[in-house]
C-alpha cells in the first residue's frame, strides 16, 4: 500500500483568472507539478531581487518558478508536502505567510 500523503493544490485568484484567459495554462501547471515535487526549481533566477527574496523567505519549503509564455509563476509546497500554493510572481509579497494565503484562497 502506498502511504504517500495527498497534496492539496491551491491557486490564487490571479492564477485562476489567467487560466480562464489561457486554458492551456492549467495543463502546463499540471505537467509542471511532478518536476516541482521532484526538486526541479524550474527557472528560479536567484539574481532577480523578487525571486531571491522569495527563495530566502521560503527555504524550509519546496519551491519552484515556472514560466508560461511571459508569465512567471511561483509554486510553494509545505515541507510535509501537505499543500501547494501556486501564485503569479507579481502576487508574491514577503510579508504574506503561506497560511494566510491558503486561508484566503479557501474562502475566496
How are the elements arranged and paired?
Elements: E1 8-11, H1 13-21, H2 24-37, H3 49-57, E2 62-68, E3 71-77, E4 83-88, H4 98-107
Parallel strand pairs: 1-4
Antiparallel strand pairs: 2-3, 3-4
Can you put this structure into words, describing what you see?
This protein is of the alpha+beta class and 108 residues long. It has one domain (8-95). Helices cover 39% and strands 22% of the residues. The protein is built from 4 helices and 4 strands, in the order βαααβββα. The chain has a 4-stranded mixed β-sheet, with helices on both faces. Strand 3 (71-77) and strand 4 form a beta hairpin. The longest helix has 14 residues, at 24-37. The radius of gyration is 13 Å and the shape is globular. The relative contact order is 0.23. The mean pLDDT is 79.
Short description:
With 108 residues, the chain is α+β, with helices and mostly antiparallel strands. The protein is 39% helix and 22% strand. The protein has one domain (8-95).
Keywords:
single chain; 108 residues; 4-stranded mixed β-sheet; 4 helices
Helix content: 25-40%
SSE topology string: EHHHEEEH
Number of helices: 4
> How would the global form be characterised?
globular
Secondary-structure content class:
alpha+beta
Please state how the strands of the largest beta sheet are arranged side by side. Answer: 1-4-3-2
Cα end-to-end separation: 36 Å
Please tell me the total number of domains.
1
The total beta strand count reads 4
**Which regions contain 5 or more consecutive residues with pLDDT less than 50?**
none
Please indicate the percent range of residues in DSSP E strands (runs of 2 or more). 15-25%
Amino acid at each position: 500500500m502506498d502511504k504517500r500523503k495527498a497534496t492539496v493544490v491551491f491557486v490564487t485568484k490571479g492564477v485562476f483568472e489567467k487560466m480562464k484567459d489561457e486554458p492551456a495554462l492549467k495543463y502546463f501547471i499540471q505537467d509542471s507539478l511532478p518536476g516541482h515535487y521532484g526538486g526541479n526549481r524550474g527557472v528560479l533566477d536567484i539574481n532577480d531581487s523578487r525571486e531571491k527574496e522569495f527563495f530566502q523567505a521560503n527555504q524550509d519549503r519546496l519551491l519552484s518558478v515556472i514560466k508560461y509564455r511571459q508569465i512567471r509563476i511561483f509554486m510553494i509546497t509545505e515541507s510535509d508536502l501537505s499543500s501547494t500554493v501556486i501564485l503569479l510572481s507579481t502576487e508574491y509579497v514577503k510579508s504574506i505567510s503561506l497560511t494566510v494565503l491558503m486561508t484566503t484562497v479557501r474562502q475566496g
